[in-house]
Amino acid sequence: MPLFLCPNDDTQMQKIARNGVELDICPTCKGVWLDRGELDKLLVQEREESEKSVQAHRRFQEEVQSFERNPDEWKRSHKYDDDKKRYRYDGDDDDRHEQRDGRRKRRGGFDLFDIFD
């Protein structure tokens, strides 16, 4: 393996491979150098990710438009799996406690404010 030296400070560079792209990184100045064709690989990967993002946005917009055209049909096609698991709009997301008259179950131990109940 040939010895690669950083052009800025003449220290030995480290070769790192990430996502199929080999990078030469200087540990002291943190400079990054690419071999021939590596920048093209990075651009292709970025272009693919960008296309996926555009397609996902397009699918989302189509879903929104289908809802705007006919909300009742959209609701029928997007039912909840279980009617008992519908979202509650009470602002309480903690299901670990048992509800008794809107109060949480006490965890035990003495609480100073227990004497006022």
Précis, in short:
This protein is 33% helix and 11% strand. By secondary structure, it is α+β, with helices and mostly antiparallel strands.
Q: Could you explain how this protein is built, in words?
A:
This protein is an alpha+beta fold and 117 residues long. Among the domains are: 1-35, no CATH class; 37-76. Helices cover 33% and strands 11% of the residues. It has two helices and three strands; from the N terminus they run E-E-E-H-H. The protein has a three-stranded antiparallel beta sheet with strand order 1-2-3. Strand 2 and strand 3 form a beta hairpin. It is flat. The termini are far apart. The mean pLDDT is 76.
What is the tally of helical segments?
A: 2
Count of individual beta strands: 3
**Order of strands across the biggest sheet?**
1-2-3
Helix content: 25-40%
What is the percentage of strand-forming residues?
5-15%
Shape: flat
Strand pairing plus helix content: what structural class? alpha+beta
Low-confidence stretches: none
Mean pLDDT metric? 76
Order of helices and strands: EEEHH
Radius of gyration: 29 Å
Most strands sheet = 3 strands, antiparallel
Distance between the ends: 78 Å
